[in-house]
Structures are given as structure tokens and as C-alpha cells.
Amino acid sequence: MKLAVIEGDGVGKEVIPAALEVLDAFELDVEKVPLELGYDRWERTGTAITDDDIDILKECDCVIFGAVTTPPDPNYKSVLLTIRKELDMYANVRPIRPLPSVKGIHDRTDFNYIIVRENTEGLYSGIEEIGEDVSTTKRVITRKGSKRIADYASKLAGSRTNKLTIVHKSNVMKSDKLFLDVCRQSATDAGVTHSDELVDSFAYNLIRNPWNYDVIVTTNLFGDILSDMSGALVGGLGLLPSANIGEKYAFFEPVHGSAPDIAGRNIANPLATVLSLKMLLEWHGDIAEAAILEEAIDSSLNLGICTPDLGGKSSTSEVGEFLANHIKTRV
Ligand code: ATP
Ligand code: MG
């Protein structure tokens, strides 16, 4: 496998090395292609990402990515938006499930749902007009964009409990009527049981009763917000992995950002990135390795080897080292 490695900015520079130590422990046939992208590079060179970088990414099978800082500078081209668009990774897949010995907001731990977020359009279309008194962002919903995310989510639901929840706001935004109609049709065609909820009441229901849900499909911005919110259910943003999937490429990254408030201190939780690595292994068909990795994570948490956000005393690199050593005893 040819793996592009992007540390990015902030805690990305800490969690990616920890995840790579874990990957190396498996001694798989992986060719790593390091790429420097993001805000630090922009400050140094004036570009955050170029067409050449995209070409390099396209030659790789998949990407592991830390985080990048996106400054509110109108001249700054968002690295993540550029990559998602150029590699056309339309599905952002975010599994949410409790981990052993980690306290979330509920005592019940019998939930396990996946947010499937449309990744290329919606309010993150990037089509904006910035004015002195009026600024607008165009919310783009297309039939094609909705159908491929709906089909992805329906298929995923079919491989799980066959239950799909469509989250939207079509009563206020007519653009969501198209999204809702296409999702309903896709689920019906796939023989998947489906229901839909308005995003505001859904947010309330999800926090109160997460065990009622399995696969959730929604548009770009709603998916972004709902997945950060889901971090609270499982004990923190430092625990949420994600995959960006397209027809040809896959890109794995923690849900959290560059966390400038804690960057440079070797205290960021590497588990969101390590769990993203686990999704990468599964995507690549390394199922046995993914299972060993999960066992290593469970073992670290049960032993209290974790970063301060989870109440532990271990550093980012110590968690990576523990996981790597555990894996070496199993492979
Ligand atoms: P960005 O603009 O890059 O998204 P942000 O300021 O929104 O940066 P996030 O990375 O989204 O920061 O983090 C939000 C909060 O969660 C911060 O307080 C951060 O310290 C915390 N956090 C994020 N990632 C981790 C992590 N891996 N381990 C521990 N805490 C984290
Ligand atoms: Mg953030």
C-alpha cells in the first residue's frame, strides 16, 4: 500500500507520529509518502496546497491525515476542502461508540452509530460572495451528490441493522427536500427501513437516546456539527475517528482539528487518529490487524494508559508506544 502521510498543523504533528509508530508495529508492506500541507507551510511559503500535491496524493492508495489550522483569511485556500473536492471523496464516515473504561455522558454504553456526512456540497460548497455589508454562502444540494451519499448510507445500513435515519431541515430549507426525497428513494430501493428527523429535534434526541440510532445520513454542515457533538457522548473529541471515502480514494483523519490550545505539549489524545488508522486497515482488508489494534486500545484504556483529556497521565507518544509494544507481542 502506498500511504500519503500528512501531519498538518498543531496536534497533527503529534498524533500522526504516534499513529505511525502503531502502524509500523504491524510490519505491513507500506510505502509512506510524507507531504507537508497546511497553515505552517502557508506562513513559510505562501501556499497551503498546490496542484503538484494533489498529483502526489492521487498516486497514493490512501491518506492518513492529522489536522490543519484554517485561518479566517479570505486568501487562504482550505486544504481539507481542496483535497475532498479534488479526490472527490463524497462520504465522510464517522462511527460513534463508547470505549472501555471511558466515561461519556450516559452510564449506558449499548450504542454504536455511524454518521454518514455528505462531504462535497451543501453549505461547504465554497461558493461565497464576501461583501462589506452582505456576505453569502451558497448551499448546494444536487441529485447526483445526494444519491451517491444516500446509496452509500443505505448500503452501510444494509450491512448492519438495516435501519437508516435521514437528518435534514426541509421544512425551512427547500434545498433539503431534494436531499430527503433522494435519500428516501435510495433506502426504499435498497430495502432499508428508514425514517427522517429535522436536525434540531434530532440533535436533542441523539444526545438523550443515542441507542435508538444506527446509520444516520445527513448533509455537510449538519454532519459536521452532529459528529463533534457526538464526541461528548463517548468522552471527548480526542476519541472520534473518521474516513473520507470516494470511488477511488480514501482518506482517514481524526474528527478533531489542530487544537492550538494544547498543541506542542505532547498531551493530545492520539486515539482518534489511531482509530482512524484502524478504519484504514479495515478499508484495506487488513481485518486481523484491525482487530489486534482494537484489542491494544482496549487494553491501554483498561490499564489507564491514556492522555489527560481522559483523566490519564500518559503523553501522546507514550500511548503510541504502549499500543505499538502491545501489537508487537501479537503479530
Ligand atoms: P481547528 O480550527 O483546527 O478545528 P479548534 O480550535 O476548533 O481547531 P479542535 O481541534 O476542534 O480545535 O478542538 C476543540 C477542543 O477539543 C479543544 O479544546 C481541544 O483542545 C480539544 N481537543 C481536540 N483534539 C483533541 C485531542 N486529540 N486530545 C485532546 N483534546 C483535544
Ligand atoms: Mg474545530
Automatic annotation (TrEMBL):
MF GO annotations: 3-isopropylmalate dehydrogenase activity; isocitrate dehydrogenase (NAD+) activity; magnesium ion binding; NAD binding
Name recorded for this polypeptide: Isocitrate/isopropylmalate family dehydrogenase
Pfam family for this entry, one: Iso_dh
Keywords: Magnesium, Metal-binding, NAD, Oxidoreductase
Family membership noted in the UniProt record: Belongs to the isocitrate and isopropylmalate dehydrogenases family.
Key word Flavoprotein present: no
The species this protein was found in: Methanolobus sediminis
GO process annotations (BP): isocitrate metabolic process; L-leucine biosynthetic process; tricarboxylic acid cycle
Residue ranges of every copy of the Isopropylmalate dehydrogenase-like domain listed in the record: 2-323
